[in-house]
Amino acid sequence: MLNSDSILSMASYLLGIELRLFWASSLFYALALLLFIFHMVTRSNLFGKAARTALVAGVLAQAGLTALRAFEAGRVPAQTLYETLSWFALSAAAAYLYSSRRWRNIYLPGVLVSGVSAGACLYALFAASPAIEPLSPVLQSRWFEWRQILMFFSYAVFAVSASIEATYLIISPFVKKDGAPCYGLNAENIRDFHKMAFRLVLFGYPFLTFAIFSGAVWAHNTFGRYWSWDAGQTWSMITWTVFTVYLHAKSVPALTGRAASAFNIIGFVSILATTFLGVNWLAGLLGIPLLRIYAL
Amino acid sequence: MRSGTPIRFTGLVQYPDLRALTGIRMNYSVENIRSALTERLYSVIKLAYLRLASTTTAVCILGLMCVFYLAGTVFPQGVSLTEYINGGGGFVFLVTLFDLLDFFTSPVFLILAFALFLNLLVCVYEKYPSLFVKGPYPAEFTPERSIALTQDLKEAFEKVREVFVKELGFRPVESESRWNVVEKGLPCGLLTWLFHAGVAVCFLGFALTYLFAYDGTMRLAPKKASTVVPRETGRLKSLWTAKDGPTDFHLYLEEFVTEYSEYPDLDYPEDRTARLAIGLGWSSPSYELREDSLFVRDWKARIKVIRGNNTLREKTAEVNSPLKYGGYTFYLAGWADFVKVSVDRNPILLEVLSGDEIFVPGLLEPLVFGDVKSGRVYRLDGRTEDLRPFTTVKRKSGGGYEYLGKVMFGDSVTLNGRSITPAGFETGAVLNYRYDPGAGILWAGGVLLLSALALRVFIGRATAAYDLTEKDGIVFLNLFVSSEGLGYSPDKTVAALTRHLTKDDIRPQEIPPGQ
Predict the structure, then answer these.
(1) Beta strand B376-378 with B250-262: parallel, antiparallel or unpaired?
(2) CA separation for the pair A278, A45 (Å, rounded)
(3) Which of A161, A163, A167, A166 is closest to A198 using CA atoms?
(4) Which of A44-58, B106-120, B362-376 is the least confident region?
């Protein structure tokens, strides 16, 4: 049996490795962002390919640190702010790499995805503590774990969808029938490319629904109220409702075009608001006091 | 008045615009007016029904719902207007008009939620008959792909059918179409209907909770029976009674246990540059174990439900594992320690709740005893041991408290010549109880919703329609493949079909549509 000093020394050593991996993945994401921007400016596919490679390296480093942290903590590493941001960044980059695997010379959505991943990583490293502390009894619940994992996973998938949607909105006016491809997009492939945005929302939507449901079960088991209208819960409901609107709009001919695209982008903005700005950012912006929040 | 008797409507003569508004033509009989009004009412209801059956209405209501949710996150909920204004809050007119400090129970929000529920109900009702209709397929499909086959028409027809049914797992569908229609997967229409129905059931659960649920807090003293005495009742019941009666059963706290983990603190810099230095390997973070760095990992209460001498239920309740009985759910929210204090070893003990002030004879300032640490501790190196119970003592000093130190039970601190000894303690459980008849219905609706949604999205359905034509001695397989959900892809279906047809030496050759 190891004594306390050895255990602490090992934990410190592992945390040091983990932090280095985290910084490395952040730098890879930042490098990918830079290369994607070069691609955007120069239209050179070489930069696009290099950016994708940097993104792959970032994902590998972050997958490694996630596994390491799971080993260190002895639990799923998606409970604290530091961990959820890391999980969000990894999921976004991995979801982008997977969904773009068959694209030929289309790299523009990578700008947003790599930016989001780099931002999430740097935010975690600068603003959150990496300490592995015991979980409070109220958080020791499988329902809470699933809520965290699936909610941030779905947010990441929606972020990739929004990046495709934004690319489509920007590029589609320049795509002409029988014209030269614009950033890899032409009249033939732009429909399938845009369809991917819808398919990603469709994929992420059940996960977000399950996350909200499991959060309600957890709250019910722990506090006795499955819903309390606190700002965190309400923001998750806002995101869910916006994507519900998006999916419904896709089935209405009058709304299926730009209106639906706008809903997808709004959904992404609400994700950014909750993930990076915190749930009370709008109140702060309007100068409204943050007094106590009560459960209904 | 007999029906059909002509009457005079002087009011209508005086205000002819009203006629224009109601659309009633000038034939002043009660029956005519009644039928015109009925007709108008019917047309209004019909219009409202049609609007509610529309997806566009759902989009509008949901969009408005988002705005309402947003308002609920911006304005602090549950505070009084005075608190809000004193805190520097603005938009007071809007806050008062829309009840923005209690927005989620305000009439505006409830009306919108009801409109959404009606929209959902009407849509579910409207779609119900279509569940029993076999998918209406058009008589003609527009082929998306044409594949040239090398066999004769009859043989090719048999082969294609065999590949679809035996190799790709499609099933033939009876249709009035001239084309052969096959499909694979789940009935998406039914699944879509089911998850919308699930949402409607969830709404019912919400409504029951809103109308009937209530809760409260109670404290269980050790080895004593306590009765639930609600302080209130549900919203609907509160119309005729202020609160529910006490329960006919009692809760008896047999044992309360706390468990602690020893955990280290991380020495980690706040400064960003120093954090970057760790990332670059120039310095390392380190964990340190400090004295009494104990973290409550769990607390458990052995509770019996009793009536008279009978034990009706018995459970060790934990934070995420409540006790349920008699429609109530009891959640273990925390604990309360009663510290027994002896002054100058006097056998008559003073009793105080930890955290509360106590005046000790001979001392001018009151003392405060902190939470009692007792129970089992799990050390970092894997050892477990029982804690020797201790508490902390503070003395009121000016506006704050002066920390005097940690005291083991049985040990003393001397203040102003008086010996103060925490002689013992009792730990009671703090329970939140809740009566909520809506939760079960909500879970049922949630399970229905999630199951149907997952099957609809992740499996879905593929439909293929094919037709064989012959032109200049060459047989063409004309294909139309579509899918719903993510489980099937038209491209993959065509690729698999082509692969199988190749394997059977029909040698297909895809030609672009329109040729």
Answers:
(1) parallel
(2) 37
(3) A161
(4) B362-376
ipTM reported for the complex, 2 dp? 0.92
Cα(B461)–Cα(B183) distance, integer angstroms: 7
* Residue carrying the six token digits 């009859």: B154
Of A137, A235, A291, which has the smallest distance from its Cβ to B299's Cβ? A137
- Please choose, from the candidates B253, B210, B211, B249, the residue with its C-alpha nearest in 3D space to the C-alpha of residue B229: B249
Q: Does B334 touch chain A (CB under 8 A)?
A: no
pLDDT at B511: 60
Whose tokens are 């000016």? That residue is B398
Whether the pLDDT of residue B28 is over 80: the answer is no
- Nearest CA distance, B412 vs chain A (angstrom): 31
> Do the Cβ atoms of B77 and A210 come within 8 Å?
no
Buried b (16+ CB within 10 A) or exposed e, B420-443: bbbbbbbbbbbbbbbbbebbebbb
Per cent of chain B over pLDDT 90 is 50
pTM value?
Answer: 0.89
Asked if B266's CB is within 8 angstroms of A15's CB, the reply is yes
Cα A8 versus chain centre, distance? 33
Packing angle, helices B107-127 and B30-52, rounded to 10: 90
Judge whether B88 is closer than 8 Å to chain A, CB to CB.
Answer: yes
pLDDT, mean of residues B264-278 = 88
Q: How confident is the model at residue B513 (pLDDT cuts 50, 70, 90)?
A: low
Whether residues B66 and A242 touch (CB distance < 8 A) is answered with: yes
Minimal C-alpha gap between B206 and chain A (Å): 9
Strand partners, B143: none
Query: How large is the average pLDDT for residues B197-222?
Result: 94
- Our CA-based measurement puts residue A201 at a distance from the nearest CA of chain B, in whole angstroms, of 10
- Chain A touched by B265 (CB under 8 Å): yes
For residue B82, what is the nearest residue in chain A, using CA coordinates? A291
**B218 touching chain A per CB within 8 A:** no
